[in-house]
Amino acid sequence: MATNSPQCVKCAVRRCGSTEKNGKVPASCPTEKYPDLVKEATEKYRLPENLAVMKGWLGLMKKVLDPQKQTEKYAWTRIHEIIEYAKIRGMKRLGIATCYALMPEAKMLSDILENSGFEVVSLSCLCGEVNPQDLGMPGNIFCNPILQAEILNREKTDLNIMVGLCVGHDILFLQNCTAETTPLIVKDRALGHNPVAALYQSQGFFQDRFAKR
Q1: pLDDT on residue 163
Q2: Residue 183's beta-bridge partner residues?
Q3: The pTM is what?
Q4: pLDDT tier, 2 (very low <50, low <70, confident <90, very high otherwise)
Q5: In this structure, which of 33, 97, 125, 204 has its CB flanked by the most CB atoms within 10 Å?
Q6: Fold of 93-199
């Protein structure tokens, strides 16, 4: 990797998160290195589809970070945030793309969303019942994230929620969705689908697992 490639996580200045803008940043700072892209990206927020998302986020944050209810920000689960965002955006029809192994969790999510007034379309990754051998792949079952995406496109969902799609399958799903999509559960078989725990444990009990080999 080039030595002047952006390395924000290694920056000791972090001017971007400060009101003080006179601090000297590394040459690799993306703000300094790519002023043309800063300008282009800023203009893209003016596009209607992007502006709508940002207004939805702002509406959500006004409730989450309400200065009159400061302690309540810790009561907002990810599910609450998704529901509130969808309501602010006026969304009515939500899609769930779930791994077959997380069908119970997806069913609980579907019930919650329906109880909140949404129409829900839910799809298992095994929908389509494609024979993997027809594609030259091993096994008896075939996960089909592209079909999940295309069916949700056809069903005209307003917002799609990913529940435990495998690495790679989530990429294909995102590439083929036309509706806005957000993750709820990221699969982590070792840690009860809580992948950030591996980062915390990398400084302790898991340290040897991530050591250089």
Answers
A1: 98
A2: 162
A3: 0.92
A4: low
A5: 97
A6: Rossmann fold (3.40.50)
